[in-house]
Inverse folding.
């Protein structure tokens, strides 16, 4: 475990939170000991759930994980990190294309603040292809979401998409 003075930040939209996200949170806890999950308030992505709903889902799904806190933020991740004394950003990398995008973001964040490091973690192979966008497409096509979402998140998603 890395000895850090502050929690690492795992930022994302989490729309909805998937089993892959939860896997990465567990992995982050194993590395850092404490982890803040930051829900991005980015309405330009037209999220299915509001930021407050996503925070609530994450709080519920991580309630038994000691060392996890959940918050939401607007604006740049590095600004949030600076305001909260966080020096490490945790990012999941599933594929080569993920890595290319995440690498660009990490370098941009470093250019904005060279005191903030990005750590890349690979998810369990079982979740290496799971994305929130893909899950919405599976649902739209009538597919089963049990493998990708916890029962509570799945019920909220089905309720939202049926209305």
């Amino acid at each position: 475990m890395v000895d850090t003075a502050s929690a690492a930040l795992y930022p994302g939209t989490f729309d909805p939170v998937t089993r892959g996200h939860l896997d990465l949170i567990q992995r982050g806890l194993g590395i850092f000991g404490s982890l803040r999950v930051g829900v991005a308030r980015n309405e330009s992505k037209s999220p299915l759930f509001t930021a407050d709903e996503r925070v609530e889902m994450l709080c519920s799904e991580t309630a038994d994980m000691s060392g996890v806190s959940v918050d939401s933020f607007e604006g740049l991740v590095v600004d949030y990190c600076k305001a909260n004394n966080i020096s490490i950003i945790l990012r999941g990398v599933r594929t080569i294309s993920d890595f290319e995008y995440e690498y660009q973001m990490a370098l941009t964040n470093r250019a904005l603040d060279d005191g903030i490091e990005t750590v890349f973690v690979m998810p369990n192979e079982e979740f290496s292809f799971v994305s929130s966008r893909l899950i919405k497409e599976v649902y739209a096509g009538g597919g089963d979401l049990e493998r990708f979402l916890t029962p509570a998140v799945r019920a909220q998603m089905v309720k939202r998409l049926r209305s």
Remarks:
- The chain has six helices and five strands.
- Residues 41 and 50 are 8 Å apart (CA to CA).
